[in-house]
């Protein structure tokens, strides 16, 4: 297929067979599993995934690629959802193809929408068994980062409260056409069956983390001035003199839960 990659869709097509083999091995799809690929592109991953599971669902926004997939694969092999993954209802799909179970997700995600797409997918955690995605390596590093590191921040916290994360493998630019200007990596995300840090109110946590990282070089005391004081931070075992990247996910959740309880107590 003479498809010209479209910048507006962030298209970089995977072509290295060794990398494709490694990614499929990471996913380890089994016959009959409800597997959904986001952004199949020219089917580099689609074909080997389909061969393993028997039937595959794909979500693809590009109509030219959809036309190619329709011509290449039979309906009994592939179900195509010509939709925007950012607006797609993965919960409804799971209820349709895996009633009483959960779907698996995989794909080489367009780097220009990867972060908002991950937050969109987080809303369907109860319908998802696991996810394996190729992303910009910088994003993978941030998602899987530990407290006290330069990569640790809002993305780390807000995804780690929802998913167990694991950096699986790195992928060089030469594995794609056209080669991106950045390194890539594959990450595994598994929704927590029982969250290690239960969040009482996600919007409260989101606002807290956003405000805490408003200025990375400043202390929590400075970033949260007018929100909580030193004594209140100490009450949930947090040192107000620490910088935001030094605070663990557990501590942020503990503080957010305390703030939400205070808000409810005063009828807020």
Q: β content, as a range? A: 15-25%
Structural class: alpha/beta
The CATH top-level class label of the largest domain: Alpha Beta
Poorly predicted regions are 1-10
Q: What is the H level of CATH, i.e. the homologous superfamily of the largest domain?
A: Vaccinia Virus protein VP39
Strand order of the largest sheet: 4-3-2-5-6-9-7
The name CATH uses for the topology of the largest domain is Rossmann fold
Number of domains: 2
* Biggest sheet features: 7 strands, mixed
Radius of gyration: 21 Å
Enumerate how many helices there are, as a single number.
11
Q: Characterize the quaternary organization of these chains.
A: single chain
The helix content is 25-40%
Which CATH architecture of the largest domain?
A: 3-Layer(aba) Sandwich
H and E order: EHEHEHEHEHEHHEEEHHHH
Tally of DSSP β-strands: 9
pLDDT averaged residue by residue = 93
Write structural notes for this entry.
The protein has helices at 17-27, 46-53, 63-72, 90-97, 114-122, 137-143, 154-160, 202-212, 220-223, 230-235, 249-265; strands at 13-14, 35-38, 56-59, 78-81, 103-108, 128-136, 163-171, 176-177, 184-191. The termini are far apart. β2, α2 (46-53) and β3 form a beta-alpha-beta unit. With 268 residues, the protein is of the alpha/beta class. The protein has two domains: 7-191, Vaccinia Virus protein VP39 (Rossmann fold), CATH 3.40.50.150; 202-265, rRNA adenine dimethylase, C-terminal domain (Helicase, Ruva Protein, domain 3), CATH 1.10.8.
């Amino acid at each position: 297929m003479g498809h010209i990659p479209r910048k507006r869709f962030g298209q970089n097509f995977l072509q290295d067979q060794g990398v494709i083999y490694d990614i499929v091995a990471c996913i380890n799809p089994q016959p009959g599993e409800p597997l959904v690929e986001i952004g199949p592109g020219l089917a580099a991953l689609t074909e080997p995934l389909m061969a393993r599971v028997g039937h595959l669902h794909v979500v693809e926004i590009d109509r030219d690629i959809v036309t190619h997939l329709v011509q290449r694969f039979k309906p009994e092999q592939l179900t195509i959802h010509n939709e925007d993954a950012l607006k797609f209802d993965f919960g409804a799909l799971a209820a349709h193809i895996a009633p009483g179970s959960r779907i698996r997700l995989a794909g080489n995600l367009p780097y220009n929408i990867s972060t908002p797409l991950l937050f969109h997918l987080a809303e369907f955690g109860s319908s998802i068994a696991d996810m394996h995605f190729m992303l910009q390596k910088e994003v993978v590093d941030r998602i899987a980062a530990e407290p006290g590191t330069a990569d640790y921040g809002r993305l780390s916290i807000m995804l780690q409260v929802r998913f167990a994360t694991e950096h699986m493998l790195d992928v060089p630019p030469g594995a794609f056409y056209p080669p991106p200007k950045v390194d890539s990596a594959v990450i595994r995300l598994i929704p927590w069956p029982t969250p290690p840090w239960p969040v009482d109110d996600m919007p409260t946590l989101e606002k807290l983390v956003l405000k805490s990282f408003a200025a990375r070089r400043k202390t929590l005391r400075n970033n949260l001035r007018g929100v909580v004081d030193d004594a209140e931070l100490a009450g949930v075992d947090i040192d107000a003199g620490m910088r935001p990247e030094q605070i663990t996910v557990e501590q942020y959740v503990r503080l957010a839960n305390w703030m939400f309880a205070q808000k409810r107590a005063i009828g807020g």
